[in-house]
Amino acid sequence: MTEREGTDVPVYLRLRGLLAAAILEGDYGEGEQLPSVRAFAAEHGANPLTVAKAYQSLQDDGYVAVKRGVGMFVAPGAVDRLRLDERARFLTRSWPGIRAHIERLGIDLRALIGTAHA
Fold this sequence. Notes:
Layout: H1 3-7, H2 11-24, H3 37-44, H4 48-60, E1 64-67, E2 71-74, H5 78-104, H6 109-116
Antiparallel strand pairs: 1-2
């Protein structure tokens, strides 16, 4: 992804990505409550309606569940499903562009992978 492409991503999707990354990194485990829409909006300088759209997107995909009057919680099995979905998204959307960029720059992919494990 180029720097410009990153700015073309709607804000709610960027916020959704932050939440998804936090879930994958274990900041919010299965069954744990997510920050309120207002708290997350304040923390990231975002409009609460935009944050609500990001939360709704995660809910629509089954990664979070709402407990009325209480808040949003990471759904059971969400971490594994999110990891699989994010992996598939990376391999189909991000990786081809990254690989092409590596090749344009003349970087040896095998050497690059070898240095990542060193």
